């Protein structure tokens, strides 16, 4: 009698633990009918155990991907081995709302789900236990960390004033472009340009106005390139534009179009200080098999830029 009483007490404790443990417990039979539905599942689904039991899981939750889950459940029974589904594979199995204040940014609960075979007394496996873990905190923290890392990575590649690519980003893409050219031999042009007499703007109006001019010119250049092109602030008032699959004639046409647009633009100065116009000079060269390095290619565009400035500025010079 004492032994039976102790067994009953242990069974009561076990049942109480299963009901109140902070994970979801669902037991399904071979027909996917619910045999156990603990309080975690009741609380988060709004479906009581008395309503859920003896019903197909897919009737209770019709939005669950039935073919996908059936394959998982059948494999657990046939192979007698557990299967684990991470939130990174599938954010959730059950569409529960997130309830923790720290994870209020998440609409739905992220879940890890373990599917485990349950052996009968005769050794057969006819039931599967689904263990549902709430991992919303982990998922949100990882997503936030990943987002922060992406932003830091982006910031490391961007010039803060102009929001164009910075010199470090330019060096990397030029190296990759040069190496690719050795194999493909596809045309590629490089434009170096700078704002004419920019020092006079800083001296006359001050550096805040100079910064405003740089930002406006940067936006004008960026708005006139293709998505495949690469625009970088090279330093000071100087910019570099990489034009893949464009020969020197096409690059010359591009430079002339941008030159005219910038010369025709009135830049509104901050604090109602009026407006100012600027011009730009351009030097362009096409990557050649005779270029032994990125530096040689850059130097040819740079030499063309200085020739344009020596010729009177507000123009482009192209070298082949």
From TrEMBL:
<dbReference type="InterPro" id="IPR013656">
    <property type="entry name" value="PAS_4"/>
</dbReference>
<dbReference type="Pfam" id="PF00990">
    <property type="entry name" value="GGDEF"/>
</dbReference>
<dbReference type="Pfam" id="PF08448">
    <property type="entry name" value="PAS_4"/>
</dbReference>
<dbReference type="InterPro" id="IPR000160">
    <property type="entry name" value="GGDEF_dom"/>
</dbReference>
<protein>
    <recommendedName>
        <fullName>diguanylate cyclase</fullName>
        <ecNumber>2.7.7.65</ecNumber>
    </recommendedName>
</protein>
<dbReference type="InterPro" id="IPR035965">
    <property type="entry name" value="PAS-like_dom_sf"/>
</dbReference>
<dbReference type="InterPro" id="IPR050469">
    <property type="entry name" value="Diguanylate_Cyclase"/>
</dbReference>
<dbReference type="GO" id="GO:1902201">
    <property type="term" value="P:negative regulation of bacterial-type flagellum-dependent cell motility"/>
</dbReference>
<dbReference type="GO" id="GO:0052621">
    <property type="term" value="F:diguanylate cyclase activity"/>
</dbReference>
<dbReference type="GO" id="GO:0005886">
    <property type="term" value="C:plasma membrane"/>
</dbReference>
<dbReference type="InterPro" id="IPR043128">
    <property type="entry name" value="Rev_trsase/Diguanyl_cyclase"/>
</dbReference>
<feature type="domain" description="GGDEF">
    <location>
        <begin position="186"/>
        <end position="320"/>
    </location>
</feature>
<dbReference type="InterPro" id="IPR029787">
    <property type="entry name" value="Nucleotide_cyclase"/>
</dbReference>
<dbReference type="GO" id="GO:0043709">
    <property type="term" value="P:cell adhesion involved in single-species biofilm formation"/>
</dbReference>
């Amino acid at each position: 009698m004492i032994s039976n009483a102790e067994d009953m007490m242990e069974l009561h404790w076990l049942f109480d633990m299963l009901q109140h443990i902070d994970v979801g417990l669902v037991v399904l039979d071979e027909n996917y009918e619910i045999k156990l539905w603990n309080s975690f599942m009741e609380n988060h689904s709004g479906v009581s155990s008395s309503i859920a039991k003896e019903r197909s899981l897919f009737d209770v939750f019709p939005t669950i991907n039935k073919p996908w889950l059936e394959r998982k459940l059948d494999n657990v029974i046939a192979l007698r081995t557990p299967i684990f589904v991470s939130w990174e594979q599938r954010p959730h199995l059950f569409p529960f709302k997130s309830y923790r204040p720290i994870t209020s940014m998440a609409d739905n609960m992220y879940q890890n789900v373990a599917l485990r075979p349950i052996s009968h007394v005769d050794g057969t496996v006819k039931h599967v236990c689904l263990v549902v873990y709430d991992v919303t905190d982990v998922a949100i923290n990882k997503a936030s960390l990943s987002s922060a890392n992406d932003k830091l990575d982006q910031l490391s590649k961007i010039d803060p004033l102009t929001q164009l690519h910075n010199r470090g980003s330019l060096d990397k893409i030029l190296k990759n472009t040069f190496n690719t050219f050795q194999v493909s031999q596809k045309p590629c042009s490089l434009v170096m340009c700078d704002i004419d007499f920019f020092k006079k703007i800083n001296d006359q109006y001050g550096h805040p106005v100079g910064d405003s001019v740089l930002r406006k010119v940067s936006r004008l250049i960026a708005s006139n390139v293709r998505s495949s092109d690469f625009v970088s602030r090279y330093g000071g008032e100087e910019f570099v534009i990489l034009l893949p699959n464009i020969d020197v004639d096409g690059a010359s046409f591009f430079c002339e179009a941008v030159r005219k647009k910038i010369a025709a633009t009135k830049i509104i100065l901050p604090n109602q200080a009026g407006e100012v116009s600027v011009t730009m000079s351009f030097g362009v060269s096409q990557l050649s098999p005779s270029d032994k390095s990125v530096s040689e290619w850059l130097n040819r565009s740079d030499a063309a830029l200085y020739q344009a400035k020596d010729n009177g500025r507000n123009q482009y010079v192209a070298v082949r």
